[in-house]
Amino acid sequence: MKMIKYSFGLLLGTLVFLSSCRDFVEPNIPYSEFDSAAYLRTIAKTSTSFDFFDLATSKFALTLEAVDIEDGATVETVEIQVQHRRLIAGVGLDYSPEKPVLIKTLQLSDFAPNDKSRFLRTSFEISATEAISAVGLTAADIQGGDVFEFSLILNDKFGRSFNRENVSNNIAGAPFYSSPFQYFVSVVCPSDLAGTYTYTTTNGSSYGTSDSLQENVCPGPLSGEVTFKAVSGKSGSYSITDATFGVWKCALDPNGLSASIVLNDACGKLSFSGKDAYDATYTFTFISNDGNNLKFTWENEFGEKGDVSLKSNDGKPWPSNLN
Hints:
CATH class of the largest domain: Mainly Beta
Helix content: 10-25%
Strand content: 35-45%
Mean pLDDT: 85
Number of helices: 4
Radius of gyration: 29 Å
Largest sheet: 9 strands, antiparallel
CATH architecture of the largest domain: Sandwich
């Protein structure tokens, strides 16, 4: 009995050792229409967004791995299609053109061996300029928040095609396979307004210590510091340590009152969102931006307001696109 157990254990250990000598990944993953197939594992997302302020050098770039029964050799071509979409408020998604168009085709010769796995890999990039032209638009037509949908179609030497329509959810979404056959490239507007600023506020008005609005309770000039902190998970949004820029400190409380107002930078267009301690919303009215000083007026729904000039403490210039 001991000899049988020993032999079985030796056999099992040998099988494990032999199987570990090869980077084996079972390619016979069922699609909706195929029992044995191929897929494109996403190895690296080198660039998956377009910079609205620098479309000329923006690009979509991936590294893909072809996984099939022949270690990638069944691939014949990979067609890459693109379509532009925009969300229009009150209307929904608007596509240009109505159907995806071909922008690039990869051949088997574009795939090559690598030192990380046994499967063939390829890297490619498509510039924002190419994508914009392919969908029949110009750079002037593009807006922040637009999305370019890139779809991949893998055609193999057996005449089969694998794409986003017939790929299973496991292959598309599971981290191990990571083969969605579709990638969404957003047009983003990088924002870097976090920091501490010195403000000068004039024409400030508030309710003061009474229940009636007192015009010019704090005519100013008022001066102090305010800090913008990036809101986690919300690109271009910043919390403000004092959204009244000194007016409340002057008219209500020397220590000031917390106003939970957020400054939003949407591709250079500035606005306020959120509500203060009294459940009031705020509006932002741009005046000017000379690089050193950003001037604007804030006002809440109670009529409290102030004219503000804001300058960075570290000398960082204001982006020229702010308005």
